[in-house]
Backbone:
């Protein structure tokens, strides 16, 4: 709404007061409080009302929620009375008045700290509640959940916004590439597919093509990662041919082809996990396979600008580590701290490598000082996810966090290659949490951590609970 600031009859003193009738209840507030709602809010527009107009402004909305919102403008905090309303009710009213940004800030969880996190909710899509995969937004903590051939979207306050049905039988990988557009891959359908969730439709499909080999047209996507300008997708053919395609985000066209390889050996397997590292502009790909002879796999770094691989390690294989024979069961990438993490399959030990100083054997093994917490078994069912410079490890159903200790020496400076004291390990969950099932996927978004478990419906939402002055309204 436009504010008529040029009228000489307008009240201009911030301490002047204005009366409003909201749903039959009288409210009185200062102009400075109303204008704190921002230049585009209904409150600010009302604050510039002509003083010659003696008619009381009537707003046909809920007066109880209005009292919560006006208190928010006065203190930048939600009052305790906000607990009487759902998050969706508050969000709808805040959107009407044009102060949804202020409400979102007040309702946002505390800065995420894994040590103090707890499971505050479980999101269960209405149909086919078993999630195949999901993607979370790093800014606002919203989440898109794939279940079967459908995707259900939940906004910043975890309210269901929409569900769309794709043309795919099953969705195995999903990556948010624009605020309303996702790149989707399926193990049962060829190609990389793009869906616009604001309109619920398919806006494009990219396929890997090769005139000399028509079979490649049927290649399916196993992993997806996104940079500011590109999307990277790992394509795999049933006849053991695979590569990574770089796709322009704006045109949805193939820009380049990376790491084409073929064969049945593990070192030629398609990457099952892709991570883009913005600070160094490199793409990290990894894969892990298991069989009768244990685990094996690789980690590789590519520079898309040159199309060349800049570093790799194979376990077991050419990249011999100080614990050769104990190959990794899973891999994580800390894009903020520029570190690689691996979980050893036999010992269950966690190791890290500084991405700025990679070499043939870059691993530093994180030591557990508490004898009662030392790993006694392997990592047969494990997941690693790095978020906010914390390393979250799911072992079977247990969830733990490794947090970097500030002021400690860099890993490269620690004698003997053991990083005792560099990271501290803590359990995030309680026994009742770990008994829910084996952890399948972990992903951070906003100030939240999302977890899915094998054969368990819904996605768990974890937030930090040691907040000061924040009222929970969930």
Residues:
């Amino acid at each position: 709404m436009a504010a008529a600031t040029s009228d000489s009859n307008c009240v201009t003193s911030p301490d002047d007061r204005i009366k409003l009738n909201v749903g039959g209840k009288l409210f009185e507030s200062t102009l400075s409080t109303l204008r704190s709602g921002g230049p585009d809010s209904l409150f600010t527009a009302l604050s510039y009302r002509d003083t010659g107009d003696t008619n009381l402004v009537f707003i046909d909305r809920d007066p109880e929620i209005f009292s919560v919102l006006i208190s928010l403008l006065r203190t930048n905090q939600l009052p305790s009375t906000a607990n009487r309303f759902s998050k969706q009710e508050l969000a709808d009213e805040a959107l009407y008045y044009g102060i949804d940004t202020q409400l979102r800030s007040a309702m946002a969880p505390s800065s995420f700290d894994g040590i103090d996190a707890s499971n505050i909710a479980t999101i269960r899509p209405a149909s086919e509640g078993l999630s195949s995969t999901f993607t979370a937004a790093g800014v606002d903590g919203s989440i898109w959940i794939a279940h079967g051939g459908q995707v259900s979207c939940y906004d910043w306050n975890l309210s269901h916004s929409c569900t769309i049905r794709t043309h795919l039988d099953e969705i195995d990988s999903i990556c948010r590439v624009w605020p309303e557009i996702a790149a989707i891959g399926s193990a049962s359908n060829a190609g990389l597919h793009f869906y616009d969730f604001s309109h619920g439709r398919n806006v494009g499909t990219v396929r890997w093509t090769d005139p000399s080999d028509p079979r490649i047209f049927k290649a399916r996507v196993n992993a997806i990662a996104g940079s500011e300008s590109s999307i990277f997708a790992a394509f795999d053919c049933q006849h053991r041919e695979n590569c990574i395609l770089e796709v322009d985000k704006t045109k949805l066209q193939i820009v380049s082809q990376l790491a084409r390889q073929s064969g049945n050996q593990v070192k030629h397997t398609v990457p099952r996990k892709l991570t883009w590292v913005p600070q160094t502009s490199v793409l990290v790909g990894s894969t892990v396979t298991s069989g009768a002879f244990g685990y094996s796999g690789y980690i590789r770094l590519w520079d898309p600008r040159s199309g060349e691989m800049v570093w790799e390690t194979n376990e077991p294989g050419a990249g011999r580590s100080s614990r050769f024979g104990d190959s990794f069961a899973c891999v994580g990438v800390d894009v903020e701290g520029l570190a690689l993490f691996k979980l050893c399959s036999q010992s269950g030990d966690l190791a890290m490598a500084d991405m700025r100083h990679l070499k043939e054997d870059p691993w530093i093994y994180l030591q557990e000082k508490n004898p009662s917490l030392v790993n006694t078994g392997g990592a047969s069912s494990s997941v690693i996810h790095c978020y906010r410079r914390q390393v979250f490890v799911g072992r079977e159903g247990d969830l733990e966090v490794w947090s970097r200790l500030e002021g400690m020496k860099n890993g490269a400076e620690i004698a003997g290659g053991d990083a005792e004291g560099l990271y501290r390990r803590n359990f995030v969950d309680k026994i009742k949490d770990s008994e829910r099932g084996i952890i399948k996927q972990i992903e951070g978004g906003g100030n939240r951590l999302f977890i899915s478990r094998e054969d368990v419906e819904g996605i768990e939402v974890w937030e930090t609970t040691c907040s000061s002055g924040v009222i929970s309204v969930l």
Q: What stands out?
A: DSSP finds six helices and 31 strands in the chain. Residues 123 and 318 are 44 Å apart (CA to CA). The domain at 2-107 is CATH 3.30.710.10 (Potassium Channel Kv1.1; Chain A).
